[in-house]
Amino acid sequence: MREALASAPGKVILFGEHFVVEGQPAIAVAVSLRARVAARPVDEPRITVSSANLGVQQDFDPQSPDRSSPLYPIAHAAVLTMEELGTRRGLQIRVNSSIPPAAGMGSSAAVAVATVRAVAAALGHDLEKERISRIAFEAEKLVHGKPSGIDNTVATYGGAIAYRRGEGFLELEVDFSPVSLVLADTGKPRRTGELVQRVLSLKAAFPQVLEPLYYAAGRLAVEAAKMMERGDFEAVGVLMNVNHGLLSAIGVSTAEIEQLVYAARQAGALGAKLTGAGGGGFIVALCRREDAGRVVSALERLSPRVLAVSVEKEGVRLES
Ligand code: MEV
After folding, report:
1. Beta carbon of 20 within 6 Å of any ligand 1 atom
2. Do residue 136 and residue 156 come from a single domain?
C-alpha cells in the first residue's frame, strides 16, 4: 500500500444537457483540464480530505461523517470504493483540480472518478473503468440528486461520446483538428441539482408542451453526432445554436449567458450555446481554428475567464 495519484478530465456537453436526465441522447467531449487526486492509507481510522483549490482540510469519521461539508462527496466516493473492494482503511486524500468548479464542466464527477481510481490503487487494486464510473455515479447522486451519468462517463472514458441514460454510451470518431472550443465564464456559479429539479418541475407542470421539446433535443443530438463524425462543423454549429434555443425555452439561460452566446456568434463562431446545467457557468463556442483568436478577444471583453480548450482523448489515468 502506497500513495497513489490519479487524474480525470473535465467535460463540455455539446448537445443535450437536461434533456439527457429524462432519457434523451446527449453528446459530450472530455477537455484538456484535469482533476488530480492523491490517496494514501493511514493508520488512524478516519478519512482526511484536503482541497488545494478550496484551501480547506477536513477529517471524516466514516461512521458519522459531516454530510454538510463541501468535501463530503469525496470522502463518500472513497468509502464507496472501499465497500466495493470489501475493505476499510483510514485514508489521506488530497485534491487539486484545474477544472473550474460549479461551471458546468463536470468538476465534481472528475474529482469523484479520480478519487475512486486513486483510492483503489492506494489499496493495491486495479478497477476496470466500468466499475470506476459506476462508483463515481453513486457518489455524484449526493452532489446533484438525479445525475444522468454523462459526467462520470466522460471523466472515465475521455474522448467524444454519445450517451443515453440506461443504455450506456458510444465513442464517436471525430477529427477535431479543424476546430477549437472556446469557453467563457458568466462569473455566476450555479447549483446543478437545483436547476435539474427546476426543469423537471416545468416538465411535470406542462408535459404536453415539454415532451416535444425533449424529443426535438434527442433528434438534434443524433443528427449532430452524424455531422461531427462527417466533419461537417458548419452544421454542428447551426445545431448547437438550435440546442441553445431549446435550453432557453426550458428556462436555464440567463441574460449573461445570452450576451456571451451572441458575442461569440457575432465574432465568427460556427455555433455557441450554454453548456452544463446553465443558470450561470460557462458557454461553449465552436470556432474554426483560424477564427478562435477573434472569438476569444470578443469574449474577453465580457467574461472574467475565457479558456480555449482541446478535446482530451484520455479519460481516467493513474499518474503514479
Ligand atoms: C450537468 O453537467 C448536465 C445536466 O444534464 C445534468 C446531468 O446530466 O446529470 C444538467
Report:
1. yes
2. yes
139-181 residue pLDDT tens: 999 888 889 999 999 999 999 999 999 999 999 999 999 999 9
Residue 63 predicted with pLDDT over 90: no
Residues 133 and 238 in one domain: no
Residue reference for cell 478519487: 115
Strands (E), 128-258: 160-164, 168-171, 179-185
List the domain range (segments joined by +) for residue 253.
179-309
Q: What is the pLDDT of residue 144?
A: 80
pLDDT at 150: 95
Q: Is residue 195 in some structural domain?
A: yes
Categorize the per-residue pLDDT at 291 as very low, low, confident or very high, splitting at 50, 70 and 90.
very high
CATH of the domain at 271: 3.30.70.890
Dist. CA 244 → ligand 1 center (Å): 15
Per DSSP bridges, beta strands 90-97 and 179-185 are: unpaired
Which one of 43, 59, 66, 151 is the catalytic residue?
151
Is 151 among the residues known to form the active site?
Answer: yes
The atom number, within ligand 1, closest to the CA of 147 reads 9
CA-closest candidate to residue 257, choices 276, 238, 274:
274
* Cβ(17) – ligand 1 distance below 6 Å: yes
Regarding whether 14 and 136 lie in a shared domain, the answer is: yes
